[in-house]
Amino acid sequence: MNFDAQNKIVDPDLFRPVTIIGAGSVGSRLTIMLAREGCADLTVLDGDEVASHNVPMSEFRQKHILRLKVEALSEIVEEASGVQIRVIPKMYNGEPLKTAVVACVDTMEARQLIWKAVKDNPLVGIFVDTRINAEYIEVFAIRTCDKDDVDYYENFIRYSSVEATRSMCGNHGAIHISSTAANVACAALTMFFKQSKFKRHLRMLCGYFQEV
């Protein structure tokens, strides 16, 4: 691919491997964004099939319904960018993790399992957690071995999905909302690889602008 139009902002040579857990509305869009920016080492885990309600909010099409999300996404990404992603057609179950890790999952319990694997893990430089509740978005970008970042994030990971309110993921929104969350996650990863500097927490009510 020709990256000349964007390489002043994003140098593809700076990208490192990224593991994305969850290939739904946010995960599918994030995968394609990273591939189109030049990240050629992408691993995606998800054991679900594409359902009809996934189509309006993600990169999937009607022809992908009932196919495994990761297999369909692999074809979409290769067609869009030429990148061949590594797919693992199963749900994450606590296996060791390394590289940059992004959680695009639906429950707090899934996040807690991922966090257990990345916390204080020197093989994981950055952990990004994306959350959506209708029009509300939260994205965390955490250095996994930085005490301040770890202590901060643990204030937002200790409760269950039942107890979660604003911070839960599962009450999905529309494509502009999932796209915004994917954009923020992609920006955090890009800034981390570019200069190791990024904001660790973004909260926003998507689409609501402040009048000036």
Strand order of the largest sheet: 3-2-1-4-5-6-7
Number of strands: 7
Q: Globular, elongated, flat, extended or rod-shaped: what is the shape? A: globular
- The helix fraction, in percent, is 25-40%
CATH architecture classification: 3-Layer(aba) Sandwich
Largest sheet data: 7 strands, mixed
CATH class: Alpha Beta
Straight-line distance between termini: 40 Å
CATH topology descriptor: Rossmann fold
Percent strand equals: 15-25%
Q: Number of helical segments?
A: 5
Report the average pLDDT across residues: 90
Helix-strand pattern, N to C? EHEHEEHEEHHE
CATH superfamily: NAD(P)-binding Rossmann-like Domain
Q: Which descriptors apply to this entry?
A:
single chain; 212 residues; alpha/beta; Rossmann fold; seven-stranded mixed β-sheet; 5 helices; 31% helix
Describe it for me?
- The protein has 212 residues and is of the alpha/beta class.
- The chain has one domain: Rossmann fold.
- It has five helices and seven strands.
- It has a seven-stranded mixed sheet with strand order 3-2-1-4-5-6-7, with helices on both faces.
- α1 links the parallel β1 (18-21) and β2 (42-45).
- It is globular and about 45 Å long.
Write the layout of secondary structure elements.
Blueprint: E1 18-21, H1 25-37, E2 42-45, H2 69-81, E3 86-88, E4 100-103, H3 108-118, E5 126-133, E6 136-143, H4 147-153, H5 175-195, E7 201-205
Helix pairs in contact: 1-2, 1-5
